Amino acid sequence: MANNEKLVLVTGAAGFIGSHLSKKLITNKYKVIGFDNLNDYYDLNLKKARLEDIKVFSSKYKNNWEFIFGDLEDKDKIFGIFKKYKPSLVIHLAAQAGVRYSIQNPFSYVNSNLVGFVNVLEASRLMKIENLIFASSSSVYGGNEKIPYSETDEVNHPISLYAATKKSNELIAHSYSHLFNLPCTGLRLFTVYGPWGRPDMAPMIFTKSILERKAINIFNNGEMWRDFTYIDDVINSIMGIVKKPAIKNVSFNKKIPDPSTSWAPYRIFNIGNRSSIKLTKFISILEEELGLKAIKCLKGLEPGDVISTKADTNAIEKWIGYKPKTSLEEGIKLFVNWYRNFYN
Length: 344
Fold this sequence. Notes:
Layout: E1 7-11, H1 16-27, E2 31-36, H2 44-58, E3 65-69, H3 75-85, E4 89-92, H4 101-104, H5 106-126, E5 131-135, H6 161-180, E6 184-189, E7 192-193, H7 202-211, E8 215-218, E9 225-226, E10 229-230, H8 231-242, E11 266-271, E12 277-278, H9 279-290, E13 295-298, H10 314-320, H11 328-342
Parallel strand pairs: 1-2, 1-4, 2-3, 4-5, 5-6, 6-11, 7-10, 8-13
Antiparallel strand pairs: 9-12
Helix pairs in contact: 1-2, 1-8, 3-5, 5-6, 7-9, 9-11
């Protein structure tokens, strides 16, 4: 089947990664059905602007785009979409995001990240989806202190409900892969940034505050390290997995089980930049690009926060030849240019 005959369902299409991915799929002549509930976790106008950007973009490609509004928890809605459009591929990015928000709003995570995810899995099973890709998170590594994080590490000590729901997604997906031969690939994403980014994440928060001459909170007294991954590198990795679904590991050893693979068609991959920088270094690069100094307010470690992240990406490199190409300096420059244009 040619690409232009394949239909892809992208949940969370109004989100940061979902909007970029939708445009990339359209460029590659896939028909894309975008799904999102447009909740108010962050600026709704930004989500609507992303959708408008996709709509304008798709007009150059035979309008291979359709958007459907709805909630993941609405089982009838989800099943109806699958039955009507019969997608070949599902890329499930929709979720209630945010580590700190999960402490005060646990039920939104249970409803979206657990109930909603099972609805997508059930519909995928019934429609015999060829390839299910879903977003996990680097937060599943929780209290682990071994750096870099590897998919073969145990991830049994989450330190936020958000992380626990993402780990649960991985476990539930494996059970479906085993029981129903459903190819499932989970992506542990590491601090994605770039144009159209999320306002609740550090790059947007810091940029807005620096430009408005407001203080920025730097937690753990500045002793924080992150593996910042540019959006284009993330999208290119997903496109590689679109073309290469998970397959059974015929040499899987159940006596020494590797949690990143399985006898079932199931894989887990880190998607990161393979490097970790101190948050204060990120801020200094941002300051240089903005031409302004940040007003820094050092604070203690917040509940649920991980001190350091760094991705071991050997597995995804072997699987699809993935290598991040965007330096932090280049990525911040592209992000700041977008930010200035979008927010005038």
